[in-house]
Amino acid sequence: MWTCLLRLESARIISKFMRLWVLTVLLSGFYLSTSSAEDTEQWNPVPIPSPALERVETDKDQPFEGAKNKPPFDLATAQKCEAELKTRRIAFTVKEQISDERGCIVERPLLVNSLSGGITLSNDMTLRCEVLLALDDWTKDIVRPTAKLHLGQDIKRLQTSTSYHCRTRNNKPGGKISEHGFANGADISGFALEDETVINVSSKEDNLTEDILSKSKFLAGVRAGACAYFTTVLGPGSDGSHQDHFHVDRAYRKSGYRLCE
Which residues constitute the domain of residue 212? Predict the structure, then answer.
């Protein structure tokens, strides 16, 4: 009887071992088949784009911020202004519209080289009529009387430099367009008297003689008086860009405030 029991137990163990062996063989075959399929599948990596060669723009190429600060234009108003210039016998030439792709625009620029009363400009200027009219008013009402008061003689010429120039404010890359970009501003570097003495805006003297004090009073007077005719007046002490000239313009500001420094 013990013999029979041993035989049955041995058969049971062998049967269990055989089942485990068959299962192992089946699993191994499945793994090998799937592994082979993966190994033979073509590998298509995602292509990495080559770095593009970007064009480096220079400050000259960069567009300006735009003409958000452009002064409004009305043809009827401009022509009325021009009629006033003719009444004052100020000679001017109407040029073609200036339009720069960077945003500078002057719808009706005027070319001028003199003001009323025989006052000349040291170089031709391209300006909007409103600025030219303000420049003439300031010269007639403030500059000439102030020169007679403090210097004892009249002026004969304005030493002028920049008028229209398409650039940003203080030439800062990508900034707002300067009023010069709309022919809406003028730079004055000095004043020539009747005896050809030139009073430079940048003049600085350590010895405060009576003559120097008179020149200083003249420059202070014309600078302060300019605020009545222009919405912006800058000069020595305002910033590093205006140490040798007066900048005057008719900047358009919705709030109506004036900047006089």
Answer: 75-260
Residue 183 placed within a domain: yes
| In-domain check, residue 54 | no
Q: Is-contact 177 64, C-beta < 8 A?
A: yes
Distances (CA, A) of 154 to 66, 115, 190, 197: 42, 14, 14, 11
pLDDT digit string, tens, across residues 134-175: 999 999 999 999 999 999 999 999 999 999 999 887 767 667
Q: How crowded is the C-beta side of 86, counted as CA atoms within 13 Å? A: 8
User: Count of CB atoms within 10 A of residue 246's CB?
Assistant: 22
The string of pLDDT tens digits covering residues 9-28 is: 444 544 554 554 444 444 44
14's CB contacts (< 8 A; 6+ apart) are none
Count of the separate structural domains present in the chain: 1
Residue 21 located in a structural domain: no
Kindly tell me the burial class for residue 73, based on how many C-beta atoms sit within 10 Å of its own C-beta (0-12, 13-18, 19 or more). Answer: middle
| 215 domain residue, yes or no | yes
| Whole-Å CA distances, 232 to 40, 108, 146, 161, 249 | 78, 21, 20, 17, 5
Total Cβ atoms within 10 A of residue 199: 20
| Residues 3, 149: Cα–Cα separation, whole Å | 146
pTM of the model: 0.73
